[in-house]
C-alpha cells in the first residue's frame, strides 16, 4: 500500500510538467475541516480522476482550485501561477465548472458562450460553433438555455469549459444527470480531449467512470487523499473472481489446494443449470494458474469472471469506510442533502 | 468597459428589467389620467407635494411623481435592484460561473453596482419623461411657479426638473449601494433587499425623534426632500450640497465595504 500513498507534487510527473498541484491545501469551515493538507499533482496530458464518496471534500477542493473559496492553509499551483494570489493569471489557463453548471436562462447557449468566452479572451463565432458541435448542441445553440434539460445544461457546461481552449479542464461530475447515451458521449469526449493532449481533472464518485476515462487518479475521503497513482494501480492487489465449472466440490478442492485450506470459497446460492459458481478472492497473478489446474484436473471451466467492478467498489469502500460515507457534515455532503449536488 | 458591456447585456436580457421600467413609467401616466378624470381637484396639502399644482401645469407631474415615488417605491426598486447584484447571481448559480473566469472581483462588483444605478436612473428618467409628456398632453406646459411664488422660464423649469431627478438619483444610489453591500454578505437577494429596507426605515425613524437631532445631518434619509430647495427663489443651494456630500460619503463607504467583502467572500452557492 505504501506505493499508493500520496507523493509530493513535483515527483509525481516524470517528464511532463505539472499543470495543477495542491500544496498542503486545507479548508476549514468553522470547526469542520473539509480539506486536510491535500497534496496532489496533475501532469500535462493527464486525464486525472478525482474520486471520493459524497462529502469527501472534492467540490471544496475544486472551488479552491478555481479560486472560488480561499484556503485556510496551503495553496494551489496552476502552471506557474499560485492560487489564490495569482488567480486571474491562473484562470486564463483553466476552463471548467463546479456543481451544476449555471447559465443565463433568458439567453441562448450561443450568447452565453460568447459572454463567458470573452471573459477569457477573444472568442470567434466559429469556435462557438465548434464547441457546440463537440457537445452535441449545435442544433439547439440558438435556443434559450431556460428551455434546456439538465443533461443539455451539463453539455453546455462542458462547452463553456472548452470555449477558450484552456490547458486544464476541470469537470465536476460531468455525467451527472445524463442518460446512458449522454454519459457515453461525455466520456468519449473526455477521452478525446485526453488524446488531444488536453489535461483534464475529472471529479466523480463513479469508479467505473474514472477507470474508463482516466489514466491517473486519487481517491479522497474526509478531506484527505487515501490513494494516489495510475488508475491501473488503484485496483486492489487481490481481486474477487467467480468461477463457473461443472464440478463444484472438485473445484473447491483445487482452489483450497492452491489458495490454502483456509481460503474462503463462497458458493452462495448461485446455481445455474447444473453448473455452480464459486467465488473466491486471490492475488490477480494467481488466476491463470488456477484455471490451468482446473483444466488439468479435467474440470470443465465454463467461465471465469473477474468481478472487477465489484472488486473496485469493495476496495473503494474499504479505503473510505463504508459505514459513514453518506453524511459526515462536510460542506459537500450538506449541499448534496439540499439537492444542489448530485 | 467589457465588464460594463457584459452587465448591460445581461440587464437587457432580463424580462424583469422591462417590467420594472414599464411599472415606473405607468405611475405618472396613471397619476395624470386619474387627476384628469377626477371631478374634484386636490387642494393644497392633500396628496403628495406639488399634486395640487398639476391641474394648472403639466410640468408639475414629473415633480409630483418624483415626490410620490421617492417616499417608498423608488427605495423599494433601488433595494431590490442592489440586492440582486451579487446575491441574485449566487441564487441562480451564475456567480460561480462568472468567477471561474479570469475576472477581478472588485471590478466586476463595481460594474454591477454601476449598472444597478443605471437601471434606477433609467427608471427615474422614464418617470420624468412619462410624467412630462402625459402632463403636457393633458394639462399643457407652462413655466413652473416656484415655492417662493416666482416663475421660472421654460428652459429653467426643465433644467430644475432634471436637476431634481439627479439629486433623487443620488439618494437612491445610497440605497443601491447599501443593498449591494448587504448582497455581498448573503446568498439571498430577498434578504439583502429586505435588510436594506429595514435599515432605511430605521434611519428614517431615527430622523423623526428630536432626541436624535444631532444625527440628522449624517443620515442620508434625512435629505430626501432637500431637492425641494431647487424650487425656491433664489435656490437654496446649501442644503442641496449638504445632501450631495452626505450621499457621496455613504456611497463611497458602502461601495468600499461591498468591494472588500466581495473580494474575500467564499463562493459556496
Shape designation of chain B: globular
H and E string of chain B: HHHHHHHHH
Strand segment count of chain B: 0
Identify the most extensive interface between protein chains.
A-B, 34 and 23 residues
What's the alpha carbon Rg of chain A, rounded to whole Å? 23 Å
**Mind describing the biggest β-sheet of chain B?**
none
List the strand order in the largest sheet of chain A: 6-7-8-3-9-10
In CATH, the architecture of the largest domain in chain A is 3-Layer(aba) Sandwich
List keywords for this structure.
heterodimer, A: 342 residues, alpha/beta, Rossmann fold, Alpha-Beta Plaits, 2 domains, six-stranded mixed sheet, four-stranded antiparallel sheet, 27% strand, disordered N terminus, disordered C terminus, B: 269 residues, mainly alpha, 9 helices, 68% helix, 0% strand, globular
Question: What this model shows, in words?
Answer:
The complex is a heterodimer of chains A (342) and B (269). Helices cover 35% and strands 27% of the residues of chain A. Chain A has 342 residues and is of the alpha/beta class. Chain A has two domains: 2-234, 3-Layer(aba) Sandwich (Rossmann fold); 238-316, Alpha-Beta Plaits (2-Layer Sandwich), CATH 3.30.70.120. A six-stranded mixed sheet of chain A has the order 6-7-8-3-9-10, with helices on both faces. Chain A has a four-stranded antiparallel sheet with strand order 2-1-4-5. In chain A, helix 7 (180-195) links the parallel strand 7 and strand 8. In chain A, helix 5 crosses helix 6. The radius of gyration of chain A is 23 Å and the shape is elongated. Mean pLDDT of chain A is 82; it is low at 1-10, 323-329 and 333-342. Chain B is mainly alpha-helical and 269 residues long. Chain B has one domain (2-263). In chain B, helix 7 packs parallel to helix 9. The model of chain B has no long low-confidence stretch (mean pLDDT 91).
Amino acid at each position: 500500500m505504501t506505493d499508493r500513498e500520496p507523493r509530493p507534487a513535483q515527483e509525481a510527473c516524470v517528464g511532463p510538467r505539472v499543470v495543477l498541484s495542491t500544496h498542503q491545501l486545507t479548508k476549514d469551515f468553522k470547526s469542520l475541516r473539509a480539506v486536510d493538507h491535500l497534496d496532489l499533482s496533475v501532469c500535462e496530458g493527464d486525464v486525472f480522476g478525482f474520486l471520493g464518496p459524497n462529502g469527501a471534500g472534492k467540490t471544496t477542493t475544486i472551488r479552491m482550485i478555481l479560486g472560488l473559496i480561499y484556503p485556510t492553509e496551503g495553496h494551489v499551483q496552476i502552471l506557474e501561477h499560485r492560487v489564490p494570489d495569482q488567480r486571474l493569471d491562473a484562470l486564463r489557463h483553466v476552463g471548467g465548472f463546479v456543481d451544476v453548471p449555471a447559465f443565463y436562462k433568458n439567453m441562448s447557449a450561443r450568447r452565453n458562450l460568447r459572454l463567458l468566452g470573452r471573459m477569457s479572451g477573444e472568442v470567434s463565432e466559429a469556435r462557438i460553433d465548434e464547441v457546440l458541435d463537440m457537445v452535441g448542441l449545435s442544433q439547439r445553440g440558438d435556443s434559450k438555455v431556460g428551455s434546456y434539460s439538465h443533461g443539455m445544461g451539463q453539455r453546455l457546461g462542458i462547452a463553456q469549459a472548452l470555449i477558450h481552449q484552456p490547458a486544464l479542464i476541470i469537470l465536476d461530475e460531468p455525467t451527472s444527470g445524463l442518460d446512458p447515451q449522454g454519459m457515453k458521449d461525455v466520456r468519449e469526449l473526455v477521452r478525446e480531449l485526453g488524446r488531444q493532449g488536453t489535461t483534464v481533472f475529472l471529479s466523480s464518485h463513479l469508479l467505473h467512470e474514472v477507470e474508463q476515462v482516466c489514466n491517473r487518479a486519487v481517491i479522497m475521503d474526509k478531506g484527505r487523499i487515501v490513494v494516489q497513482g495510475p488508475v491501473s494501480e488503484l485496483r486492489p492487489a487481490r481481486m474477487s473472481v467467480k468461477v463457473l465449472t461443472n464440478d463444484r466440490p472438485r473445484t473447491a478442492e483445487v482452489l483450497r489446494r492452491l489458495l490454502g485450506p483456509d481460503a474462503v470459497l463462497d458458493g452462495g446460492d448461485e446455481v445455474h443449470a447444473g453448473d455452480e459458481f464459486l467465488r473466491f478472492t486471490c492475488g490477480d497473478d494467481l488466476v491463470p494458474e488456477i484455471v490451468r489446474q482446473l483444466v488439468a484436473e479435467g474440470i470443465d471451466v465454463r467461465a471465469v469472471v473477474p468481478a472487477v467492478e465489484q472488486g473496485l467498489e469493495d476496495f473503494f469502500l474499504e479505503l473510505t469506510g463504508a459505514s459513514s460515507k453518506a453524511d459526515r457534515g462536510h460542506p459537500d455532503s450538506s449541499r448534496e442533502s439540499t439537492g444542489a449536488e448530485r | 468597459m467589457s465588464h460594463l458591456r457584459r452587465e448591460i447585456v445581461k440587464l437587457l436580457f432580463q424580462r424583469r428589467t422591462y417590467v420594472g421600467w414599464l411599472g415606473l413609467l405607468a405611475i405618472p401616466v396613471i397619476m395624470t389620467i386619474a387627476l384628469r378624470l377626477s371631478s374634484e381637484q386636490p387642494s393644497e396639502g392633500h396628496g403628495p407635494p406639488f399634486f395640487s399644482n398639476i391641474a394648472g401645469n403639466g410640468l408639475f407631474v414629473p415633480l409630483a411623481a418624483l415626490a410620490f415615488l421617492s417616499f417608498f417605491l423608488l427605495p423599494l426598486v433601488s433595494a431590490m435592484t442592489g440586492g440582486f447584484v451579487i446575491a441574485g447571481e449566487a441564487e441562480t448559480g451564475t456567480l460561480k460561473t462568472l468567477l471561474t473566469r479570469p475576472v477581478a472581483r472588485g471590478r466586476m462588483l463595481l460594474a454591477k453596482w454601476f449598472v444597478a444605478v443605471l437601471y434606477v436612473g433609467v427608471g427615474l428618467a422614464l418617470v420624468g419623461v412619462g410624467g412630462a409628456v402625459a402632463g403636457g398632453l393633458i394639462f399643457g406646459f407652462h413655466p413652473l411657479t416656484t415655492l417662493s411664488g416666482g416663475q421660472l422660464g421654460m428652459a429653467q423649469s426643465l433644467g430644475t426638473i432634471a436637476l431634481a431627478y439627479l439629486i433623487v438619483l443620488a439618494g437612491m444610489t445610497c440605497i443601491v449601494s447599501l443593498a449591494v453591500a448587504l448582497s455581498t454578505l448573503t446568498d439571498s437577494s430577498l434578504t439583502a433587499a429586505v435588510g436594506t429596507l429595514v435599515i432605511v426605515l430605521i434611519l428614517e425613524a431615527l430622523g423623526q425623534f428630536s432626541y436624535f437631532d444631532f444625527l440628522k445631518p449624517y443620515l442620508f434619509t434625512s435629505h430626501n426632500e432637500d431637492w425641494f430647495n431647487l424650487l425656491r427663489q433664489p435656490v437654496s443651494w446649501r442644503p442641496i450640497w449638504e445632501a450631495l456630500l452626505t450621499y457621496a460619503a455613504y456611497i463611497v463607504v458602502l461601495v468600499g465595504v461591498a468591494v472588500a467583502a466581495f473580494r474575500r467572500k467564499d463562493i459556496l452557492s
